[in-house]
Design goal:
The complex is a heterodimer of chains A (378) and B (443). Chain A has 378 residues and is of the alpha+beta class. Chain A is built from six helices and 26 strands. The longest helix of chain A has 13 residues. The termini of chain A are far apart. Helices cover 42% and strands 20% of the residues of chain B. The chains are: A alpha+beta (378), B alpha+beta (443). Chains A and B meet through β26 of A and β13 of B.
Chain lengths: 378, 443
Amino acid sequence: MEFSLQRVDLLKELNLTQGVVERKTTIPILSNILLEASGDSLRITATDLELGIRSSCPAKVKKGGATTVAAKKMLDYVRQLEHAEIKFKVVDSASGGSLQLNCGNSHVRMPGIAKDNFPVLPDFPAKLAVLPSGMLLQMVSRTIFAVSSEESRYTLNGALLLLKPETMTMVATDGHRLAHVESDPSLVKKGYGGVSGEVRILVPRKAMAELVRLLGESKENAGIEFGKDDNHLFFKVGGRLLVCRMLSGQFPNYEAVLPKGNDKKVVLDRDMLTAAVRRVSLFSDERTHSIRCHLNKDELKIVSSGSDVGESEESLPVNYEGGALEVGFNWQYLLDFLAASGGGEISMEFKDEQSAGQLRPLAEENLRYLYVIMPMRI
Amino acid sequence: MEAKSPISPANHHAVILHVDMDAFFVSVEELYDPSLRGKPVIVGGKPNQRGVVAAASYAARRFGVHSAMPLTQAARLCPQAIFLPGRRERYSAASQQIEEIFQKFSPRVEMVSVDEAYLNLTGSERLFGSPLRAAHLLHDEVARDARLPCSIGVSTTRLVSKIASDQAKPNGVLWIMPGTEAAFLAPLPVGKIPGVGKVTEKELRKLGVHRVGDLARLGRDALESKLGRYGAALFAKAQGNQEREGVLAGAEWGEEWEAEDHDRAKSIGHEETFGEDLADPVLLEATLADLSQRVAARLRQQGLYARTITLKLRYASFQTLTRAQTLAEPTNLDGGILDAARRLFRRNWNRKRKVRLLGVQASGLSDRAGQANLLTASADQKWGRAMAAADRLRSRYGFASVQLATALPATETAQQSEAASRKPSTRKQSTQKPLSRNYAHED
């Protein structure tokens, strides 16, 4: 195998694959990336068996072939190289051989492990739908923080992606809060389509995190090809393919727990509310992260008191005529939502101190974003 | 939990008796076999058996044997002792009998364990005369009707009465007159205060505190600055006062017990040492269920929620694992605690190895329910109500009256092995206090 390519092209792809390279060394080859040179490109594959990414970059291939090398070392080295062009050559590639890399006056030799030992990524099956890149990115970044990281609640370790002919919806919950994003039906005009009936899948959190990286590199209006086989989900983002193991199991019946009758409602500016919660949070109990919201006539008061550090209070003017209410929340959950929602006004809707509160940004375009947060009994 | 009043003066009208049976299990055995009287008798199992001493006669105690000591050690100290297996049914029958006697003296009886009770005789002077006379009447009646020796402490507080009954042993009655509590306590070793264990004693010794009176001399502020709120409570105890003592007169009986011994508990745990090492997953998990429901019941009893569940697993080789899991939401429900305990057990138990002991402990305690769960909110509510109902039934008909179905194999085997007088399991419950104060007693 022998080829040359542009350093910047390679660096970009290496960066995008790092997230799925296994850091633990239980299976050594998973710390490697697979390099396959043929035609006029170099194909790069990384997997940790849960997730896989395949991408490619243009290359001048003198002699085709394949090998695998240590991914982290390769990235760290390529990052520090100074010349535009890098030349690769593999000696004895059948047994993995050793990879020689030349870039200007810099030369390196790395041992390879033969390609045969590298797990085979499944092939992209029939296309199931085309998802607009911008909308998918918005949905993932508005729900990913609510995905549970508790291993015991397996079906909450991912978000539900619900595709219908005219809309797509993403829902994530860890039991303490629930984030729900639904697209406008106008989405079809933006390139969404291909779904007949209803598709319900669970997207693992790690795949969501990789999607955010890949979608960030793609064009706003690009169509993401989505497919699935019995065990895997596939997202084709431009020339890059993300494959992940599907989460099996039943996502909870979230519709049943969405708040009803939350008639104590106030509207606040997001930035003002964020700043207030941040200040109050500094004086909250460090273990529970609890703060309290007091709703009174034309005032929302947010208060906290940690046992030792002191206490803090913020008074925010609002239009409010309803009954008084005092309800406790984990400030981190509030900030997660506020950071994910766009700017403008936020509607906060409560029922009582026992029931879930509901938050919605009023200024979101093209989508409806709903955040449900359970109180803390304090 | 906050103390409503930091230190409140003792209620001078209260009459609290603490009755503690003397070497209870041994005394009961002597009823069945009078030839045992005066001899060194140890109840708990055979000398070569694992397990601990459940009770030792005073003759055996002279050799240094005490309860909770491993049987093998007791056998070394006192090889001539007569070792008897525990016979639970005998003890519960006797316990019931003495409780009935107590009930004749006061409607406000709290059996703390099979052989120990608090009686509130406040306002009964007309019936029984002075508190001392009432105590003697009770002492006589227990001796006559149950034919069992006991010791009784009388004072205006549970704390002082408990210490007094200990000082009255064996077979005595001791009345601490109102106003003399501090003087009575002062010369006693500080370890006599319930809740002051070996670790706290050591800490206190560093401060120059050996006797209860030293606490008083050190002063409340010094104790509080050294030991925090616990120091303040300790100071109050040294005076014969208890936090929340002031609410006693009007409050429900039982509330004070909570304040005295469970206030500021750091953990609540139950463990079981099997009579024979086990590797049967059904029985082991049933034991976990039983331990979990006991822990949960005590949490609820004290109005607490636990954030962390710890599993203790000891193999036959004595290798001991403790594994903890922090829950997403605090709980005091049987199911929540069992789920965590079982998960830890399944993840850590090597199925090829026999288990000697299992324990379940709840810590990270708070009196607030904390974060609610959206997905389980309505189920949690239902379970909460079901458990409250179970607690009411248990308080009337005993703990075994309501059980998790998974726990049944454990309780059934325990009963069978007792009936056949085979090696019974040993159970321990504990409440871990700040500074690792620790006490355990057989239940």
